[in-house]
Design a protein that fits this description.
By secondary structure, this protein is of the alpha/beta class. It has helices at 7-23, 26-33, 48-54, 66-78, 95-104, 118-123, 134-146, 173-186, and strands at 39-42, 59-63, 85-87, 108-112, 158-168, 194-203, 227-238.
């Protein structure tokens, strides 16, 4: 059974988990995929991803968890990164955040490793789901916000998301890429004016993680049998003349 964490406990778990991603250079690799344009980061977490993104582009970031924001601000200050992190719920953006987005005019929206503590999951998902079903719906509900106004402003040309997955053993990289592209084209980017232009599969050092992840299904894969951990990167571009 999943442990029900408080927001503070979640921030402490995620601090350890994101440090492992940092040590494995995951944030660095993801930031290299994102175009070097003014970027809105949805979910700054503990700041490692924020730091990686800020090295090569103007950045505006926010998160809803004050404990995560404190960790991110301390990290950014330690590395002398000039990035303001707003506190705001993405489902109900604050007036301050909306004003900042309007002034900033982002060209890219980024949402990496989307998740939250159980209170958030309960608030933003269907009440009839079991605890292990809620994280997937929560992520999908957040992904819907990544492609819609006001967070996805008219100025946005690119959207990038990344998530952890378990891929059935025996699939080729081409099959993994095409399956995930089809999945995202069919729900996240359907009727949004965006189209997936790049899918990458990164190694995920799952054995180094103490975080309890829920395995979710992809309708384009048969999930029976053994699987291997991976990080999937999805980059989409706004179609011309939209």
């Amino acid at each position: 059974m999943l442990k029900r964490m408080t927001p503070k406990e979640y921030s402490e778990f995620w601090d350890r988990e994101s440090l492992q991603f940092q040590n494995d250079k995951i944030y660095e690799r993801l930031s290299e995929i994102v175009p070097d344009l003014p970027t809105l980061e949805i979910g700054s977490g503990t700041g490692w991803g924020t730091l990686a993104l800020s090295r090569t582009r103007p950045l505006l970031a926010f998160d809803n968890n004050p404990d995560l924001i404190r960790l991110a601000q301390a990290r950014l200050q330690n590395y002398e990164a000039n990035v303001e992190v707003f506190q705001s719920d993405l489902f109900e953006p604050s007036p301050q955040l909306l004003s900042a987005i309007q002034t900033f005019e982002p060209k890219v929206v980024v949402g990496w490793f989307i998740g939250s503590h159980p209170d958030d999951n309960d608030m933003r998902t269907s009440s009839n789901l079991t605890p292990d079903q809620k994280p997937k719906e929560y992520r999908e509900n957040v992904e819907d916000k990544l492609v819609a106004v006001p967070l996805c402003a008219p100025s946005v040309e690119w959207i990038h998301t990344a998530f952890r997955a378990h891929i059935p053993c025996g699939l080729s990289e081409t099959e993994i890429i095409e399956g995930n592209k089809k999945e995202y084209e069919s729900y996240m980017f359907k009727d949004t004016g965006f189209s997936v232009t790049d899918v990458q599969v990164l190694d995920w050092n799952h054995e180094a993680s103490s975080f309890m992840y829920v395995r979710t299904s992809n309708s384009n894969f048969s999930m029976g049998g053994a699987s291997k951990p991976a990080i999937i990167s999805i980059l989409a571009q706004r179609k011309v003349n939209q």
